Amino acid sequence: MTAQAPAGELTRINRHLPPIVQLAAGSLAAAVIGGIYMASYFPSRPPLGLPITLLIVGLLLLGTALIMLARIGDFGWRSFRVVGFWTLVAYVVQAGMIGYAFVHNGARGSPLVVIIFLLVVFAVSVPLMISFTVGRYQPR
Amino acid sequence: MTDQLQVAGSFEAEGTQDAARRSIQIVPLRGLPIVGVLVVFLILSISQDWRWGLDFFHVAGGALWTSIDLFVGLVIGPILGRLSIPARMEFSARFMPKMVLLMPTVVLMTLAAGFQLAITLHNLEPSSPNHVWLMASFAIVGVMAVIALGILEPANIAVLFELRKPNPNGELIGRLMRRFVYTAGILGIMQIATVVIMTRVTTQ
């Protein structure tokens, strides 16, 4: 085991990358706030203005993060893909459980659609943060 | 002669530790069937509104979640901070894979069962005296979710990937472990607020 890294490794560790984790965390926060807001009205029908606004904010932040990610050249894409795929599977299962809890308790119509899209933001933003954090420290 | 044997023995031990570290599983596959069984029971408890099952998952899951966060943040963390970098790496290689499997399972059990319990017991209705307390709990869980999923879990998995390299970077592992331990401590403190709210809800 070594505590010292080669110079190339140090450059990789300390280099500046776009704020992808911050943007994804922002989109996650929007999805979580939207989901909690809707859950707080449950089982009654919640007003959809705020959740839809938060959903749009979440999607915009997530989209920006994905665009920034696509423009990075030197990056551990292989690790990113492996981690991204498996964490996506795990978080789709989790999002599915949350969605099931809403459906089981009678969520229907437009509130259900908003919930599903908020869950999509949740299920994509978390794997993005995890796989980006791994990929940034891995060789190409 | 004895010294030579000791040196050879220590190299051998280090080589074995290195091999063990590099062969770590990011996700301990042997634990997945247990997670699968728990998730199936959780789904059954929700679909059947099975009160004992919901109570079990929420109380047992919540107790584990709180205890682990507090223990890691306030007990393991400070100890880990004083260890040498190789010792930290050795510890992380054995500790972190277990957390990868344990924490998401415990969180899923607690939250899914808790949401269903709140609906079954009518605690989410605005007329319920527990409504405000549950909203406060939701807000705390929301903040905790963003911290745990945005900082703690990525750090955890990045450490495991670094440990599998032939020459892992101790400085990076130390940095990521610090992030892991500090956020676990913050989550532990926030968990105390959740415990206060939950005990309040059950005694209203």
Folded structure, characterized:
The complex is a heterodimer of chains A (140) and B (204). Chain A contains five helices and no strands. Chain A has one domain (19-135). Chain A has helices spanning 7-14, 20-41, 49-70, 77-104, 109-135. Chain A has 140 residues and is an all-alpha fold. Chain B has six helices and no strands. The model of chain B is unreliable at 5-11 (pLDDT under 50). The A-B interface holds A 1-6, 9, 13, 21, 24-25, 28-29, 32-33, 36, 39-40, 42-44, 79, 83, 86-87, 90, 93-94, 97-98, 100-101, 104-105, 126, 129-130, 132-134, 137-138 and B 14, 17-18, 21, 27, 39, 42-43, 46-47, 85-86, 89-90, 104, 108, 112, 115-116, 119, 124-125, 131, 134-135, 138-139, 141-142, 145-146, 149-151, 153-155, 157-158, 161-162, 167-172.
Short description:
The complex is a heterodimer of chains A (140) and B (204). Chain A is mainly α.
Of all chain pairs, the largest interface belongs to: A-B, 42 and 47 residues
Beta-strand residue fraction of chain A: under 5%
Care to count the β-strands of chain B?
0
Q: Level of helix content of chain A?
A: over 70%
Structural class of chain A: mainly alpha
